[in-house]
Amino acid sequence: MSKITIPVRKFDAVIVGAGGAGLRAAIQLSEAGLKTAVLSKVFPTRSHTVAAQGGVSASLGNSEEDHWHWHMYDTVKGSDWLGDQDAIEYMCRKAPEAVVELEHFGMPFDRTDEGKIYQRPFGGHMSNFGEKPVRRACAAADRTGHAMLHALYQRNVRANTQFFVEWMALDLIRDAEGQVLGVIALEMETGDVVAFHAKATIFATGGAGRIYYSSTNAFINTGDGLGMAARAGIALEDMEFWQFHPTGVAGAGVLITEGVRGEGGILRNSDNERFMERYAPNAKDLASRDVVSRAMVTEINEGRGCGPHKDFVLLDITHLDPATIMKRLPGIREISIQFAGIDPIKAPIPVVPTCHYQMGGIPTNYHGQAVNPDGSTIKGFYAAGECACASVHGANRLGTNSLLDLLVFGKSSGDSVIEAINADPKGLKELPADFADRTLARLNRLNTQKGGASVNETRLEMQRTMQKHCGVFRFKDMLVEGVSKICDIEKAVHLTEIGDKSQTWNTARVEALELDNLIEVAKSTMVSAEARKESRGAHVRDDAPDTAANPNGRDDEVWLKHSLWHREGNRLSYKPVNLKPLSVETIALKTRAY
Amino acid sequence: MEAGAELNRLRWRCTRRAMLEMDILLGSFLDKHYAGLTPEQAAVFVALADMEDLELWPLITGKRECENSLQAEVVAMLRNVKVK
Ligand SMILES: Cc1cc2nc3c(=O)[nH]c(=O)nc-3n(C[C@H](O)[C@H](O)[C@H](O)COP(=O)(O)OP(=O)(O)OC[C@H]3O[C@@H](n4cnc5c(N)ncnc54)[C@H](O)[C@@H]3O)c2cc1C
């Protein structure tokens, strides 16, 4: 029996995360009359979903003919066939309904002259199974994510969702049978540690891009949901797949949109050469994200990077008419001045490929239920959004499919919870006696640690290691060495020391706890990447090149399978990709070429 | 609330924002300039940090006008903070 107890609050459901996915799930639950708690590290409308500008995809066909089946085809192809085709069909079929629903919640979409939702073209969106570009992205000016979050939040306020703001969930509560019974969380303002005991727990904690040194993700993206799941014995799926954006500002990571190259921006190396002409003679600087990113890394690796450390390339728009820059790319000028100290009208912007989006995560089915390696569901546990792996993005996400993922699987996870609670009207299952022990031991360790490592330095070391050993272009020896380095860094993480031992607003403690989560994500990424000996989507290895037998280095014979990383024993297992859609024929394996 | 806790709360609200741009900018400002502000300027900064990113960014880039000269003064300092 455990000696220490903590306060327990009881709910029908607890949702961790108040971004797009968490808020969409919460609407389902609260409107169904369930007593729902939503925990967030920040005020809901400060969640990272705000940063999404490009839009959300749905085959509404408002501007020209479109079909969910074409959207599905693009998504499977984009995923390099690693996405599960049942989940992809589900998402693409539900997309029009999800977007129209959002409109009814008050989302101010841009409109056509006839008052329909306006749709614009976006990379990878094609009609008629890859034939020609189609307008499928719905947006609210350049503030789609912001508008979406506000619409969802208002709807939740109306439905009486109970928010716990500036609370950090620390661990999942799981009993001996593996059922999830809620979370343990820390209230930052008081330092109180409280159990949220619930019939259902939904994770919607977002991404973990801060494992990399150069990342477009805000500081909040520390992968807490993944860390908590891993510590609770839940395997993480496809963690080797991270999408990199070719143009993040060197040093800061801040995103420079693709639109800059669309308007005529050119990438140059230290010889002032337009090097993309060599890598992609036709598309040049407008080739797809992964092609451009790899070319940039090759230039840097071969010594043609710029700057004192030769570690970036230049994005040049100095040849464009300043009036065009001011008119078409105003935000970019401001960002370069602010974060690179450079006015792009006068000088080129230093850029590097930058970590942008996590394709892997907590394994779920398309109902938003978390699943065991054998496909059976984990009772009481659900996940949606960037922290989940349904898997619709497979080895590479298609732009605008992420916001769609939040809406569709946010809702389906909510519906699954309602169904489960209705089917089992019994009260809450009892908490095991020792449910808080592990968490309290972790907190106690932090409070008493002497002579340990600094949180900031250890985090930086981890980020540099990930960037160098497991970046956009991967090398066998570097990966092997990376695994051993990350394991060393993990040891330091378990010995971090903080100076501040206070209760109220102890941000040093919170950052140390975030690092506990980051390291699980970093380790699962490095280990999964080292093991996957092929190139697929965003995972590209130097020793798995493009050959006649394995175009693009993809090896379907051996590697058409999902990775599952198990924290216990630091081991991997694999499970098959679901190539069987719900109602249509399988989208057969093909070489991914654009 | 104690001064240390107050500052930590401000630190959290400056460095756990919706957009990376704002994490970097407000975080750097807090480290480099906050301690040197007058109480009036500090109060304005706290209010700015409480704004949403998409309200604050247009102030910083000059797309939206500041409410008064004191706010303009702090926004100008924020705009000029060296993040590199
Ligand atoms: C710069 C940028 C631009 C993008 N543009 C697009 C785009 O145009 N289209 C598109 O489809 N996708 C885009 N994406 C991707 C997309 O924005 C994200 O994948 C998506 O918004 C993630 O939403 P989410 O609900 O899963 O998580 P988030 O919105 O990140 O929310 C996570 C929530 O979890 C909470 N949380 C996390 N950990 C804890 C914890 N321990 N305790 C309590 N609460 C916790 C946070 O407080 C937050 O409320 C973009 C991403 C970036 C970085």
UniProtKB/TrEMBL annotation, chain B:
Subcellular location(s) per record: Cytoplasm
Major subcellular site: cytoplasm
InterPro entries per the UniProt record, alphabetical: SDH, SDH_sf, SdhE_FAD_assembly_factor
Cleavable signal peptide: none
An example Gene Ontology CC term for this record: cytoplasm
Keyword annotations from UniProtKB, A to Z: Chaperone, Cytoplasm
Alphabetical GO biological process terms: succinate metabolic process
Similarity comment: Belongs to the SdhE FAD assembly factor family.
Protein name: FAD assembly factor SdhE
Organism from which the protein derives: Candidatus Propionivibrio dominans
